[in-house]
Amino acid sequence: MNPNNGTLSIAQKFKLLRESKGITQADIAELLSTNQGKISRIEQGKEEYADFDVKTLRKRFDVVGMPLEVGERKDFRVKLYHWRNLIRNRQINEAKELQDKIKNIANLKPCDFDLYTLYRLFEALLYIAENNVFTAGDILDDLKPTIDIMTPEHKYYFDFHMGSFYVAGGGFEKALEYYRKALATKKANKGIIPDSEERICHNIALCYTDLEQLSRAIMFLAKIPEATYENNTTTYSMGIDIMRAINYYKIGEYEEAEEILNDCLSRAKSVDNELYIGLSLQNLGKLHKYSKNWGKATEYFDKALNHFEKNTYYHAWALYYKFRCMIETTKLNALERELIDIAESLEGNDNYTIFLETLRYTIYLNRNMSRYNVTAVEYIETVSIPYFIKTSNRLDALECYKLLERHFIRNKQQKKSLEANRGMLEIHERMV
Q1: Which domains does the chain have, with CATH numbers?
Q2: pLDDT tens digits, one per residue of 167-188
Q3: CA–CA dist 331, 329 (Å, integer)
Q4: CA quadruple 191, 188, 133, 94: dihedral, nearest 10
Q5: Which parts of 7-119 are beta strand (E)?
């Protein structure tokens, strides 16, 4: 009997459940007030369980309400995909309510590997959506040994969710590897996997964007139909637009990027989405930062800070970029004092430590303060640059290398300036 084909009879399913728990036919006969011979005949397909006996066995194996009949399986599969859609749309509370009603499908693992595996794959997605990456990883690790008996549908979601698992941890190269495998599985099994190709193209584009491989990111974004995101106020559609804008302004298409971001800002305001208002403003700031319009960039970063909660990832980055722009336009002595005041107010907050220290040492190197130069260079080389590379912010790492190169040239340290130049070349090679 293959528990993956979904065609087993109810009697065959109860037999697999019985055997998986080490329960004998005699035990079942006693439960149903009958004899072992009858149970044997039922399991051989010569007789059938009475409806009352089926209800009793459902309770015994804790599968009440779970799909044993063919029709029930079809309905349950629809319910699983509805659960997946709730998770994807970040309707986490609703998803958890539905999970309470369907979680006992896990008890059918011995006789319905198909639905059990689908449930576990979507459960991993729920944990990823909740930023509980370790539990999601445990689920995917548990499923990994069964990959050889998975259906194409299972393999697609396994690779898809492995990709999302690595994205959550910042491992974009590994994520890209899994997403591309998922895309290949989908293309090889057209009509079998009920998922739109735009989702996987979006995630591949996300990886290429974070890896600064901009032309490839734009290529995959172009595969997403405009109807998916045009004039749409969902976080998914606004996220696509922001990603498009990021890639455009990084290749110097500032007008196109600005138009997209202003439109996204308007849509985010129409639904009072504080996060996407902040993200639109922050990326307008980054656009002007790349075009060296420092004053305009600083204004946008200031506005973005009003829409991000303090002590969060986005707030820390907006603050960092604001000060990077101010370094280009402000008297460094005054800026250093302001930075000290902010550092004191945020003391002990790990989200900001690297940013604030990088800014402080950037000011020291720009002022060429000889007593701090060694410490500043060491920090930027060993902390700032590795952090920016690890978090896929390679252009920020490039800024640090350029700062070091200028400092070494100014101080006639030719060997060190060549090392900084090699670092920049390595980053450029990774971005191609």
Answers
A1: 10-68 (1.10.260.40)
A2: 988 889 999 999 999 999 999 9
A3: 7
A4: 0
A5: none
